[in-house]
What we know:
By secondary structure, the protein is mostly beta strands.
Amino acid sequence: MRFLLLASSAISLALPSLAAAQEAPPAGAPDAGEDARGNAIVVTARRLDLARDAIDPSLGANVTALDREALDIQPGGADRAMKGVLLQTPGIAQDSDGDGDIHIRNEHGNVQYRLDGITVPNSFAGFGAPVDPRVAESIEVITGALPAQYGLRTAGIVSLKTRAQGFDFDGDLGLYGGGNNTLQPSFTLRDGVGRFNYFVSGSYLTNDQGISNPTASRKAIHDRTKQYRGFAYLSDVLDDHSRISAFGGTSVGDFQIPNTPGLTPTFAFNGRTTFDSAELDQNQKQQTHFGVLAYQFSGETIDFQVAPFVRYARAHYTPDPDDGQLLFNGVDTELTQASTAYGVQADSAWKGWDGHTVRFGGFWQHDKTRTDSLNRVFALDPSGSQASDVPITIPVLQRALGNTYSAYLQDEWKLSDALTINYGLRYDLFDGIVREHQWSPRASIVFHPVDGFTLHAGYARNFTPPPQELITGGTLAAFAGTTGAAPTLTADPVRAERQHSFDIGVQQVIGGRLTLGLDAYYKLARNLLDEEHFGSTLIQSPFNYDKAKGWGVEFSANYEHGPVEAYVNVARGQQKARRVVSNQFFFEPDELAYIDRHYIFTDHSQKWTASGGGALTLHDGLGKLQPSIDFIYGSGLRAADPAGIVPNGGTQKGYVQVNAGIMQVIGGGGEDKNWSVRLDVTNLFDKHYLIHDGSGVGAGQPEYGPRRAVFAGVRKSF
Length: 718
């Protein structure tokens, strides 16, 4: 079992051997015609996997890797959500919305997910990861000065290799549940017939805490969720040099918006002035579906992959049917937002002249977004008081089209066994509500003078197009003189973020058991993208800060010896920004005026972030006993200034959350054909803490971390 934390740029040193592996089977693999199934297809598929990985390396970047065994042994195991997995990697802070928001290196969103090297088109912010960790053979989190093939969403790359690299029949069936009335059945299945193989995965989740609790109580009020997820991968090896693959995923979720009891109504509706806030009934349904078709070719001098894709996402928010929101907020909105995206991604690697590997590729995506809302508000008199208790209905229909074009060219130049330079250039153009483009140089070095020591350093210019979510403008005047009026009528268009990123890091392996890593970064941004919650919904809407700067230092340690493995990550960082330059109507005039003149902490900036854990593998009379434990620490996201002067001038209280688990693997028909039972406890010491109190710039309602809950599961592998 490998828990490969801070694998870092040492991975890139293996690329020459990967290229060589394309001409011969992996060490220890059976000869063609002598593999486990009696044909050469398995060997060909493995060679194509290696070739695909060589197209898409993480040269000079900072990489944290988790393999399947590490994913299974952690608390929650195969049933842990992606958010829980990612929080155990360096420099990632938690936020709210169930499996939704995380902040990589203090950035808001800007996370890119990849499956087998192919970008999964982004859904709406707050929807969470597009796939479950159970579909992954391994997960890598890539940060730092990224090479030129990575663009658009660059705070971090979450790269998954799917569990599709197999032709033998296997899979598992599991049932997991417990605290918060959780029930989660799931399955995976993999098999092959001749040149064709497939992998499918599915799960259903229901519980009473779909969204973070707005109160410190053990049980949230009105927070039931039902979620369905599915994933399928199909692949056919066409010949010794090529294959065609298709994969896709679907996610459908129903969420109740949780309530805060004891609130007092502010407005009157048809003579009514009382309402129990615990009885509000707000709901959101959301769905995301994506599909990819990929053709891969691997020759003696060139490897390439071409992948057209499509994605559809939809969210429908319904307010309280008994008009409760009108009494509390003076506004209620029924909102439907739908987005369709399609495009193509192409990546290539040419083994050029001696010591050089040239990589080049392109990307195109077309987006169409539709936002329809039916808004009910009250009229105000000139003094700002409610003029009538009969609501006015204001419909708003919005449409947006956008196209994103990208191309890159880079050269991996291996000067010696100890030194590799990677340099390149990418071009990005976004043509939507605004038309913008940028040439982005990238450069990095990887220095490996002696065994066990690696240094990487790099620079990257980044360009991030704005998300097409609730793009506004031209409708604000319709709400003038009502309870839905914005604090200001300014709504400049959202623009693309432009960033300079510098990164340097070292890794030292001591005695083959202990791996230490240290990485530092500095970022300068123009038009920094951030997002504001839209009312009570899970949907967010973007805005820009004119200028921003951020820095951080991350330390990681990983120990692995025999049955013991342990790790710890500690990060110190911050991000500051000034002057809101788009969608200013979200903010109060005095707030805008202060931010115009001063740098403020962004609401997702956290000074200290840490995580860590460990596991044992003990062989007993039944099979293997695997206890595990992990923790997350946060010094606190930003909050309102207690003096009421500086936006985001305060800080939430720090917290520690400890999770524990124990799994008993019961031996059966071989290592991969067994039963496993597990018991997990989240928030072992039942520490109740605020993730944020809702007072930060762009924050929604208050959200607390999870209270202690006990879960149990059983899984049968076959």
